[in-house]
Amino acid sequence: MHIDKNSRVVVLPSPGSYQVIEVPSSRDLSQKKSMLIQNGQLMEINEIKGTPKSSMPKLNNGGAVKSLLFEGANADIPGFVLQSPLMLVGTPFNIVYLMISIMYHNQDVFTKRFITLEDVIDQLGQIHSGEWVTAISNEQYVASLAKVCEMIDENGEQFYKFSLEKAVQFIKSKVEALKAHFDAKKEELSLYNTFKQQVLDPTNDSPIPSEVIDQLTLKSSINFVCDSYLTGEFKARISEGHNFDEVENWIAKVENNKKSLEVVEESLKEVVKTTTKANRVQKKAKVTKKVVKKVAVGKGALDGFFKKN
Description:
The chain has helices at residues 96-104, 107-110, 117-127, 132-135, 138-148, 164-185, 190-196, 210-229, 232-239, 245-286, 301-308, and strands at 2-4, 9-11, 19-24, 32-38, 41-48, 68-70, 80-82, 87-92, 115-116, 149-154, 157-162. The protein has 309 residues and is of the alpha+beta class. It folds into two domains: 2-162, N-terminal domain of TfIIb, CATH 2.20.25.530; 168-256, no CATH class. It has a five-stranded mixed beta sheet with strand order 2-8-5-4-3, with no helix packed on it. The protein has a three-stranded mixed beta sheet with strand order 1-7-6, with no helix packed on it. Strands 9-11-10 form a three-stranded antiparallel beta sheet. Helix 8 runs antiparallel to helix 9. It is flat and about 105 Å long.
């Protein structure tokens, strides 16, 4: 059986031929991101990771000791082992996020006047050249531009101009949808429980105020959507108008309580350590050596007996 150390499993939504292509990252336009493309549809590649249990044996790099085993359909086809269990998943990428990032940071180009689809594509190529510009289908462009642009129709031809208001509203709708999902499924979602840890106070069992939970859920939803697909500058636009004072003050209080608890716990450890050390010294002092009386030569009972004889 063949063992492969470098190959990875890629799970794709459908069979067919895919091409690897470099695309500007919508999170940081100065960086490129490898994606797949098929029939004009971009697909992002994400790695599925897991956290191994602390009791499981680990490699030197901290990874779990496990592999993927593949067996042939019949005995004539040899199987193989992939030493790494990490899997890659290809999922359709909505290019509207990329359009928002590029157009928001180039408003002097995309908000001056209405331009045709061909002009939009030409401008994208001038700002961020690459094969990706023409590899994306016109259908994908039209669908994304309709969500973030004002449009006019002249003699059957569409013209586009970037609308910051529409772009912000589009992202806010995604944030609201994610927040509604968290609110509806909060008890079932490990992700929700993960960010809720920020407001759990180990020194206080009282219920967390509903307003704190609501602000935390909204803030986390903004972070998930924006940190995944948008630049920090555009994220600031989405956060505008929201007041997170209650949750931020609550988190600050929780952090202070945690630090105070750590100080108390460390003090208790020192007390226990000091007490244990003192008890050991006291026990050692109580153990005294038994004195054995020495008998002078010629003074013992047997010595007297032998002298008589």
